[in-house]
Write a structure and sequence with these properties.
alpha/beta; 9-stranded mixed sheet; two-stranded antiparallel ribbon; 11 strands
Length: 396
């Protein structure tokens, strides 16, 4: 199936937040025909920059009646699966929202699906094995060829080490030439310094989150490129002394990170706390501004964030999908849907062939082939290796 020249591709967006993923698709020429989020501040920002959005709990909304939908995108809430969140997994009510995404897919039958979430979904257990197995199996049942990969956002031009699982489903028969994840973007300067030269008067540059006096004092003691390990022991608060005394027990944490201007930034988080994110400006005695972290997330300077508090603005930026990452995948899906030949030079690995080790960003993309779950005694067949993934420390 191919599209006539000039056909505008359509997108339905779930859990849209302030619109990071949506913006990437808009930049790639798509039309957003429906979007939703529950957060009031994120919705206000979305309307300010992108367009109309249905505000409210998606569980209370009717599935829209959209014919011939091209792509459904969703970054369902990640806090239940992230060590920076509560890590309650499927026990958290938000941990069930991925099923709403799958219900929308089953009702609307878009030609392609793009889901994004934290690495923790690879190790969360569900009734059907792991959460990644449940999601992929359901998409296969509905009629999709499903690929997924753990990606580092730096591979796609984002100046930030941000590990995310990307799941792509393409309706069978849509991509006769095949399907692959886009190749990494090479040659871009991703150093933190590229995000810091903000012109005066740029929106949100004066929005700087306020930290408590103790955090500001500790931050002032940390040199560019350093962390809490550079603070003299006798100047640490008691709780950090206890951790320093038993680093092995606490898994060698690296709190209060102040990245060097020539480093690539770490993950921008929704909480933006000194103990789980590199919040400090490399040379000034302050946290990074909202505009600076928006640049690290690849939002353009004319994208204006609005909210009832500076904290709300930081949270929506940290929760967003980097637009540059989203645009890369939007362009790839656009080529697939228009019948443009796909670069098949990158390797694939079948899910059932993976050994018992964690998935890494350097691994090939994975095509889901529904591994069998019968035991050898019951079926007489050998059981394929299943993923045995350990929990990881990461930020949402």
């Amino acid at each position: 199936m191919t599209y006539r020249e000039g056909r505008t591709l359509t997108v339905l967006s779930m859990f849209s937040g302030c619109g990071g993923m949506d913006l990437g698709f808009v930049q790639a020429g798509y039309e957003i025909v429906w979007a939703n989020d529950i957060d009031e501040d994120a919705c206000a920002t979305y309307r300010r920059n992108i367009g109309e959005i249905h505000e409210g709990d998606v569980r209370n909304l009717e599935v829209p009646n959209i014919d011939d939908l091209d792509v459904l995108i969703a970054g369902f809430p990640c806090q239940p699966f992230s060590n920076a969140g509560n890590r309650r997994g499927l026990e958290d009510p938000r941990g069930q929202l991925y099923r709403i995404c799958l219900e929308y897919v089953e009702r609307l039958h878009p030609k392609a699906v793009l889901l994004e979430n934290v690495r923790g979904i690879l190790s969360i257990r569900s009734e059907k094995g792991t959460l990644i197995e449940e999601i992929c199996s359901r998409l296969v049942d509905i009629g999709y060829e499903v690929h997924f990969k753990l990606v580092d956002a730096t591979e796609y031009g984002v100046p930030q080490h941000r590990l995310r699982v990307i799941i792509v489903g393409v309706k069978r028969g849509i991509a006769p030439s095949g399907f692959r994840f886009p190749r990494p973007i090479e040659g871009m300067d991703l150093r933190l310094r590229t995000c810091l030269d903000v012109p005066p008067g740029t929106p949100n540059q004066n929005d700087v989150i306020r930290l408590n006096p103790q955090a500001m004092y500790l931050g002032s003691l940390i040199p560019e490129g350093g962390s809490w390990k550079d603070v003299p022991y006798d100047l640490l608060p008691d709780r950090l002394k206890r951790i320093r005394n038993n680093m092995r027990r606490y898994r060698w944490p690296n709190f209060y990170r102040r990245y060097h201007r020539d480093e690539i930034a770490g993950t921008v988080t929704a909480a933006f706390k000194p103990e789980n994110a590199g919040v400090w400006h490399p040379t000034e005695n302050r946290p990074l501004s909202a505009r600076e972290i928006a640049r690290i997330q690849t939002f353009p300077d004319d994208f204006v964030f609005v909210g009832r508090s500076v904290k709300a603005i930081y949270s929506m930026i940290g929760n967003a999908v980097p637009p540059r990452l989203a645009r890369t995948f939007a362009e790839m899906l656009g080529n697939v849907l228009r019948g443009v030949p796909v670069d098949l030079g990158r390797p694939l690995v079948a899910y059932s062939q993976l050994g018992k080790r964690p998935i890494r960003p350097s691994d090939p993309e994975i095509v889901f082939d529904r591994p069998r779950r019968e035991s050898t005694e019951e079926s007489g067949r050998p059981v394929p290796h299943q993923l045995d993934l350990f929990e990881v420390t990461e930020a949402c």
